[in-house]
């Protein structure tokens, strides 16, 4: 079995991410806003301090972004039952629909690209799903 070229793998993942991030055409938001919505969609409800650990923003910038997303009706705050001084952030129905529609749009566009692969390429890609998931888990464990 050949050695893994981690440098090439990194470049390929970066290139894929550049394209994949741009796949959806549903409602244009900046990357930070989309990241917050995605995180809340996958993990929410969360406290602002918990979001700080997943998002690459300073607290003032994240606080401002959360306020804008709240004003836009995409997320809401409610008291944290474990600590009345803190708030939990969660997606509103509109926010959940936005995350869902962006995901559906990505699935549709990625499926069209995958359909252009050979059967052998699709098999290799299918076999990589669990490995990529494991890498994601490892990265989150070390964060």
Rg, rounded, reads 18 Å
- State the distance separating the first and last CA atoms: 31 Å
Q: What's the pLDDT, averaged over the residues?
A: 89
Helix content: 55-70%
Task: List low-confidence stretches.
Answer: none
Q: List the strand order in the largest sheet.
A: 1-2
Q: Mind summarizing the main beta sheet?
A: 2 strands, antiparallel
Number of E-state strands: 2
* Apparent shape: globular
Strand portion: 5-15%
Count of helix runs = 6
What's the oligomerization state? Answer: single chain
Question: What string, H for helix and E for strand, traces the elements in order?
Answer: HHHHEEHH
What does this structure look like?
The protein is mainly α. The chain is 67% helix and 10% strand. Strand 1 (75-80) and strand 2 form a beta hairpin. The chain is globular and about 55 Å long.
